[in-house]
Queue: 4 jobs
Job 1
Amino acid sequence: MKISCWFTYNNLEELYFTGKTVVVIDVLRATTTIIAAFENGAKEIVPVNAIEFAMKATSGTFGGKTLLGGERNAKKIEGFNLGNSPLEYSADVVSGKSIVFFTTNGTKAIVKAKFADHLFIASFNNIAAVAKKLLELNLDFDIVCAGKNGGFSLEDAVCAGKLISEIMQKKDNVDLSDAALASVKLNDVFGIDFYKTLTECEHGKLLIENGFLDDLKYAANFNSSNLVPQFSGGSIKILEAQSS
Amino acid sequence: MKISCWFTYNNLEELYFTGKTVVVIDVLRATTTIIAAFENGAKEIVPVNAIEFAMKATSGTFGGKTLLGGERNAKKIEGFNLGNSPLEYSADVVSGKSIVFFTTNGTKAIVKAKFADHLFIASFNNIAAVAKKLLELNLDFDIVCAGKNGGFSLEDAVCAGKLISEIMQKKDNVDLSDAALASVKLNDVFGIDFYKTLTECEHGKLLIENGFLDDLKYAANFNSSNLVPQFSGGSIKILEAQSS
């Protein structure tokens, strides 16, 4: 099994992903929030890579059961129902709903990888479930970290390393790209106290300044979810019954 | 002092570098080769970001004292005098010469950063000299790793971490970006035996397959040079007498 890792999605071509198995990670906060929404009963999430497209997508097609969620530069967007805090996506708000979702980096990374054969959503919250799924598939795969505006995000790299480490505990002969190997070593150092890492990384500090410390606590809950959201046919869904 | 690091140059805008202090690293092999050329008496190196531009630049302007060097995908380019192996840039070949230089990643990274106030060339061979220069300047700086076709290269990240570690040994209150912090930790793991790292990283393995094992040995010579090549006015030069 060959595992490749990308610390940003920006340099990758859409067609690169054709036929591949891909995991997208954006710990702060898009993929954490997507998992939270499904934990609380959301029906589906439609990731979009432009605000204009988000507005258009909710203007009629989905009737009254659609919410518009996301952020730009960590802040809720005017006219949106929800921001990008996992704590906003509670059962009373999202249960049974379709959510059109735009974020600065995470949803763009998901849309970029849309031609993948298998496209999974991971955060620190569902690593064991995603690892189990990847081990069942037993295919080469790519991890795409959302990063931050084209640059490296420590928290995404550490989460990628944690996922790879989980797989390597259960599988021999894993071949790692440079970035995959680096992320494993970064998890060895920064994954021991992931909450501390979140409070000290660049994006975490920005979120704390904006009043989102509780989001960091939420994002650091290792394996709090058994769900594996999957992008297929234009939206993210929970495709099958999953249990621990 | 704030130290930022970029694992690829591709997502950065040229104007980002305006007024900044920048160090470009491409261990395998552009910056290693540039330093080798100056150690052997080259007069100047003109980095270009397109082969066509390299051809044009040598067609007349520089008379008979100009060499054309570089590679595309690790291989020498037809019509070029030299490839991208530091071992080719011996004194009998390069002494007193201007060299127009094109490589797949390294020279593109240098050209991208051309609006920097200070733009230095570093490899594992001249880390102490570059660190000394940066400590004298005492300015915030950015390290730009050439990476590999828009992706992460372990050897460049480790070299960046080594440079930052050298500076942190002599200076307190250094503020690190996520990528700078990650590179320091990667140097702690992979910098202990840098030659071994070069033989095991993706680009190193490719070079070994192409018969360039000796280049890896050369690239792993820690502090074999006291020179700090600097880009200024369109070409890279040794701007002042430098000694250990």
Job 2
Amino acid sequence: MKMIKNAVGRLVPDEVNGVKQIPYKGVGKYIPDGFTARTKIRSCAEFPSDGNKVVKSLKEALKKAGIKDGMTISTHHHLRNGDLLTNKLFDEIKSLGIKNIRWFPSASFPCHSHLIKYLEDGTIHHIEGSMNGPLGRFTTEGKMKGVGVLRSHGGRYQSIQDGEVHIDIAIIAAPEADPFGNANGVNGKSAFGGTGFSLADSEYADRVIVVTDNLQPFPVVPWQIQGNNVDYVVEVESLGDPAKIVSGTTEVTKSPDRLLIAEYVAQFMEEAGIMKDGFSFQAGSGGTNLAFALFLKEKMKAKGIKARFIRGGSTKYLVEMLEEGLTDYILDGQTFDLEGVRSMRENHNHVSTSPFTSYNYHGKGNFASIIDAVVLGATEVDVNFNANVVSHSDGYLLHGIGGWQNCMFSKCTILAIPSFRDRIPVILDEVTTLCAPGELVDVIVTERGIAINPRRKDLLAAVKNSNLPIRSIKEIQKEVYEICGGAPAKPLVDESNVVAVIKWVDGTVIDSVFKLEI
Amino acid sequence: MKMIKNAVGRLVPDEVNGVKQIPYKGVGKYIPDGFTARTKIRSCAEFPSDGNKVVKSLKEALKKAGIKDGMTISTHHHLRNGDLLTNKLFDEIKSLGIKNIRWFPSASFPCHSHLIKYLEDGTIHHIEGSMNGPLGRFTTEGKMKGVGVLRSHGGRYQSIQDGEVHIDIAIIAAPEADPFGNANGVNGKSAFGGTGFSLADSEYADRVIVVTDNLQPFPVVPWQIQGNNVDYVVEVESLGDPAKIVSGTTEVTKSPDRLLIAEYVAQFMEEAGIMKDGFSFQAGSGGTNLAFALFLKEKMKAKGIKARFIRGGSTKYLVEMLEEGLTDYILDGQTFDLEGVRSMRENHNHVSTSPFTSYNYHGKGNFASIIDAVVLGATEVDVNFNANVVSHSDGYLLHGIGGWQNCMFSKCTILAIPSFRDRIPVILDEVTTLCAPGELVDVIVTERGIAINPRRKDLLAAVKNSNLPIRSIKEIQKEVYEICGGAPAKPLVDESNVVAVIKWVDGTVIDSVFKLEI
């Protein structure tokens, strides 16, 4: 393994877990020259003619799927922190004596700290997928056998489609399924909305196992997962804890600073002329984002403006906008609360999307670049507008990438962030981990002012005569450093020990995470 | 090229248009051992970031797609006999001076007789796809340069998926589309319902051109065709003649014989115990099939029986059953009348399917084998229950296969046919063209009685004490021969000159069509 300096000056390995890597080359600079993955041709003659693929247990399904050492097993994270299935899955894998699994989740959550023992005993070799919380901590401390690979939602689709990651067995948790394997996430006690994160897995894995706690007669509709891609169906008592799968309701921030940020973002979108008839925007589920949506809604109502579409993850606030006629459509990558799930089930202008449609950079375009404005968070930004979303200034890898990198391609990318957190400045000279290049970040909105990327002369001109607190990023940084007593100390890391890499949306490596010296 | 006798004793060529063929081996006997087709990896960097893929004309789109001699160009037949686009397409191809195109439609109709001049002048080399009417006549007379290849809907999907047919440029006629290329068939003046026949084309073709007469802002929903698979979008004044695209209404037969057949089929399904709560059936759009659905409906109402699902092509009669609560779902492969289109647009228990979900034999199962009973037509059957759907007893190839072969896998396959047509017996010693092996045909219902395949002892036992006119196939044949004056004369053909082959659902060759000596 050799370390290479990539196009944003970051040191990245030329090889990860024995696989050759391409260093990041710049936005749109790496043009792939190959063919998508192929799958083995199957025959209906090999499957039950009555369409009944139910087997009696997850263990039996794993055995029928031919599980063996060193395989890649994928899961999705729509069950979020309520996921009991993945833990049970690895209990079964352990009981079968299987070793060295590459676990390929679309993300992992604190509930998966159960799996640390399997990382320690060699059942799991390494994780490729976002690691929220304990598993990220475990990884940063250099305890994982292999190197973690973090990809965006779109990057995960791209890696499967392009054959970079071959999934041997995909496990798909389905709140509703039929014996043929058709499945969705909108019906049943474990309903979570759309199940787009498992689409690529269902399409490309050698063997696909659908696990459901709500088996219904063929056909269950909508078939977000198509039974034609499924090998086995397993019925279980429960997939997880519904309260942790989706919130009953999502909460708007009460912090005065965050409310101010949210108000600035909404005002910016109005004054910059983005908020106009037929426009589109995306905002996530964080408390600031929810508040932003409420402020924007009032502005839209006041001016009689209707959006063409809103991108979720959706919440009751977006659902209200759909139901009040403030948007024609909601397009959801995921669904954050029960109202969102209900709306997706009942309202066919509330459409479930997938990383293929929304985010895959190796397609003939995707939805992300069509959106007028996206409001995102970040753990850190730097004075060159580069941004970090996975690690903290102490060097710990603690957050997933989600669709964040993919969303950067919107026509106006806004990072809505506090200027400091726990007395640690958020605007630095250089981010700890570079997850998105500054050229894609158009606006940084803090409670102390709004910094517009100098590249966006159009936006600077558009808000020149507004009463928005437009400031330079360095000016805001200086003020924050004065309050916090300067830059945070750089974490002490072992640069010879890469514990994880961050992929860009095109599969190239944009940055490394190094082992913390603790 | 060498002729080989296949597993049903038919002479088939070992090579067609220079491509090696596998002779038919029996139902479920050929297990493929390879990988599905791959497509070139694309990058969003190569596509407009605002998602606008509109180009100014079909000719420009063809040029951008790199059209050249010898390419394979695909179209779908959802516009049926109202299709003006395909004729226009080949006018453009001719005007570009392109030669030797393999035209790969999902089917062709009499309106496409416009293309005979392009078959004659070398613009089109040959057709792979069902040929209804004039093009079939042209082919049977040995006038086409290459050999025709007829596939079922599922076989067409299979051939694309498996890489047997590589599509260079797919042309998708869309009654509604957005500039990104998302498209559907349910909205707009040319609405035809679901657009499943073009799904494989959109997924696997090198370049995909969506042509619409109803361009709407992003996103049009449902996205039956995903813009992420589309290269170019072209707006035209009109795709075709709406009256010929779908019927205003579909007509039930008035013929006393056909009504009797329809009544027998319904009665058979009741007495054989197929019609029971939660059952499923499929019936096409012919006048006999429509009458059957009406008879069955009355029986279901009388007994308080509800189906789980009905497979269309749907018509107002099936829609009424859905709306009256006689079925939970309609799953449509295509839509035959305006009421069907309306219902698919408005009722989300009326679901559009594709040949992938319904019919692809090289998948992990498909819907066709799950269905309790299917009612089909045939041009001929023989005393061994083998059936023909493409040619007449005079040797002319005049009909498409459609989903007919695929539907044969239902739990009870019923052919509802008159025992003779125009004084020509329909039950022969041997069919002119063998499109489905007798082992898959369970019941033949004629106005002179019902013949049950001796293999289906269960069905024979189930209706033993009914008052249905159960007879042996030979007995019915004998009676018909007496009326018609014996078997029809065999057509005079040149067995050294194969003008078309019939593929089985697994891509093997089940029969040949020979040049007629006329």
Job 3
Amino acid sequence: MIRHICIIGAGNVATHLSLSFYKKGLTIDCIHSRSIDKAKKLALQVDSDFTDQADKIPKNSQLYLLCVPDDAIVPVAKSIHKHSNPKAIIAHTSGSASSTTLQRFFSHFGVFYPLQTFSKNRELIISEIPFFITASDTKTEKELAALAKTLSKKIQIISDKQRMVLHVAAVISNNFSNYLFQVSATLLKNNDLDFSNIKPLILETAAKIQDKDPKDMQTGPAIRKDQKTIEHHLDFLKDYPELKELYRFMSQAIQKTSS
Amino acid sequence: MIRHICIIGAGNVATHLSLSFYKKGLTIDCIHSRSIDKAKKLALQVDSDFTDQADKIPKNSQLYLLCVPDDAIVPVAKSIHKHSNPKAIIAHTSGSASSTTLQRFFSHFGVFYPLQTFSKNRELIISEIPFFITASDTKTEKELAALAKTLSKKIQIISDKQRMVLHVAAVISNNFSNYLFQVSATLLKNNDLDFSNIKPLILETAAKIQDKDPKDMQTGPAIRKDQKTIEHHLDFLKDYPELKELYRFMSQAIQKTSS
């Protein structure tokens, strides 16, 4: 059972996971980050050491958990592997990077992927976040799954391919939706209207599909093939050519699903 | 002060508004719908008469509130105006139809637009829903605003043009987002993954922007110009040509906002 963890990174994912492990009584041996200030700040919250030097990371950790951007995974794994416990597990937390990126440097490697959008200063209910595990071998898989179970009720063992599918779905549902909220906010502001006017609608849109199929929840001019309203909206959007293109694109896509 | 209301329609908006008025102690004189069954069902809940005949609507109502599809507004207004109280206000509840569509049939007309997505069997906190009022004259405007205030804390007087902007923003934020959730659900299902895995992410995406600017909340491969992940995702999506097009379109749009 993993009890001693070295966290690599000090960003949003590192912060949320470190604090959650710490609250569950696990030991964070060290926070290792290129930014010594961020490492120190997080370390103070979880009662751990901190360092910005790869050769100063602890040798006794059972897990080295990489909470770093995708393109830092290989360089960081390379920099730490000589200084770490060779029997330990190394895992990254990325939705898109393959588990095998870690194969060159460690015998036991895997992915510990929490599917959520993490921001500083926003509390999350960690027990509701689904964790997805991919690992080099059954023992590592079990160790990582057991660790995830200390945090969350929702654990699943998946393949690298399935994790990519989850990541694509997350990008579509989170990043692309957030972009829609952003352009709505701009459009409202340009017309002396406050974005807060549509915030209840946005919450309800997300709440509705928690227990209903989104396909059954679709409303609006596109799905009811209300071409008059669509043309009216497109005409208004002629001053916003990119938004007009977005509106047309999405309306056509919605109409295709119902034909 | 409006105390006596005749509701035209028996769908989701009619149901939510009728029940809310009734709870606030206002009198629903009658539910008028083409479907006598739906009219009766709703009337029983709000202690009112019901009819499917335009010439049977009450003459003493102070407000005839049209909760009908956009293309039914003019035909319904035409069918009821000879049988209604000529001093009464007529208002529709549509985001897209102009207030002036009612001008031909009534002296006092307006729009009573609640900006929310209404579904049967889903409770909504009506006091949190923003209501937007547009009216033919100041007196009507005041009457409709006072009525809205009995239900909600958030009332605003706006122009027809502004209501259209709100409606466009609502379509983008609600209908288009819901479409993104729908395609995510399909993609997951096709890869033996459950849609419920990304439901917490969807809720958090909506929750985040309640007190933050969506522009500052954007994450993911597009905004960080992670072309490697984008290409990886596009390659995976080659089996889903429409989704691939959506992914490319949205990623480019997000990247434009940051350049």
Job 4
Amino acid sequence: MPEIRQNIATKEWVVISTERAKRPEDFKTTKEKKVLPEISEKCPFCPGNEHMTPYETYVVNDEYGKWKIRVIPNKYPAVLQEGTVEFKVSGIKRSVTGVGSAEVIIESAKHNVVLPLMPEKDIEQIIKVYRERYLAAEKDKRIKMVIIFKNYGEQAGASIEHPHSQLIAIPVVPFHIRYRIEEAMRYYDETGKCVFCVMLEEELRLQERIVVETGHFVSFVPYAALAPFHMWLLPRRHTESFGEITDEEITDLAKNLKLTLSKLYYGLDNPDYNFVIRSVPVNEKGKEYYHWYITIMPRLIKTAGFEIGTGMSINCSLPEDNARFLREIKIR
Amino acid sequence: MPEIRQNIATKEWVVISTERAKRPEDFKTTKEKKVLPEISEKCPFCPGNEHMTPYETYVVNDEYGKWKIRVIPNKYPAVLQEGTVEFKVSGIKRSVTGVGSAEVIIESAKHNVVLPLMPEKDIEQIIKVYRERYLAAEKDKRIKMVIIFKNYGEQAGASIEHPHSQLIAIPVVPFHIRYRIEEAMRYYDETGKCVFCVMLEEELRLQERIVVETGHFVSFVPYAALAPFHMWLLPRRHTESFGEITDEEITDLAKNLKLTLSKLYYGLDNPDYNFVIRSVPVNEKGKEYYHWYITIMPRLIKTAGFEIGTGMSINCSLPEDNARFLREIKIR
């Protein structure tokens, strides 16, 4: 019997479709394996081509003074840095000026590295840059939300193959986020607890869906995973904003993220994926009921009319099977 | 300056990204043109292969007694017909048994026809079958929502190329739908009007985003279109449930849908798309503040981390340009 599961925190429903279920190994990607060069002449993110991008806003150099991580304004920004926030309401038209920031974090000078195969130390530096840029974006009084995300591979919407992630800061809080906060608040008011902390505690007790446990972080396939191999990576410490992550936690997050992504990389043959750092809106800090986390979404299936029409998902795999499969993949 | 627009009815935000904007003609698909046979030997939906599918629940025959439209239970159903609705709550786990119905509407005996090129009369018959199956599904006391949708092409999640659409009836109302209804109710309580009727009236007055007007229906690119060429097709008459559509309205809907989809077909070289009939939940009938409609979503772009993290969209085209482009396409 298929089961329709609900995520206790987000209240999202997902049909766990046993009749269409596939085995975890059936999700291995069949995409063409490309061998990439260390430097690509035409790539705007490769060393030597710095003139092809806007001037950097932040840079981390290696011991020889060459850049290792480079943050640049997006050349085709979704929102613009300059301008004031102006709401316009006229008849059915409601809009706000698209101001904010849109940055690209070039994760390495090398064109052909992938995040899960980088040394932990390098991932640690990337996360430190995330924190730095997150805190910088947050200071802008016009900003209501800061999103950091990575699109890896064509199915995940990446148009450039050079390793990079993005930051977008926007002047509104979408209802999708308001709704989550409201639900978390309701849970807190009823029980005195953060629903994300409760979820993490229960997942650790059950051990059915855990993928990687490290000192400060835990990754798992949620009970109501929206798609095959969808994962959450939560800090054990209750904090609502990614900006509050400590240096010690960053070291541990680098370790956990590397392991978690490696399991996807080896287990499913380097699938396309997105990850997103989900943090509280800027003006909602200090809330006891919200918890930041990273959502990792491999792009293995296509959404269709049912998902558009209901906002629900159909997951043709069992979260417990996905988690077991990933746990069993040994990483040296 | 990019503009972040909000849909007055759904409250969805979308970044209308002028910096990334493409011209309407840039969205023409480049997919390989396949010439399909009228009958495909291996296709489970083709005549002669009826034994490859479950037994039909409904059928429309032509004048020679051969089937023209065939409704079958989905062989790989998301939800199962047999069973009782049981909610389970235990710790962080919340679920309901996956009961309901999942049907496939085979739109034609011919493997190689496409909906926009079918005669109006045939489309009319298909919509009559939609209504028939919608009303049948609604009668089931276990059902809370009925979704009818079409996935056309691989990008839209279709796995079989034979022309077909689907019906899924589920025992829960997802929050995505609850939220829309709540917003529509709030608008009604404040103004005494259906927000969808107001939107339609205003779009007709402005004439900026209209695509096709017929006697009973209007298609337009919404002011806050979520993606390039995203369209809404609304009945002029205020009705909250698709099940209430009259025969006369069906005749007109066939005409409008054919024209609207033809403009996509000719204008963008036969793009993949989904459409969904969005109707009120079964137990919410008689509401004065909700309005059923069809959402048409061409699958021309990929969603990425920003969309996952915010629930917002980035539309790299201007709704007014999209609508003008489609209006100017002449259909014989």
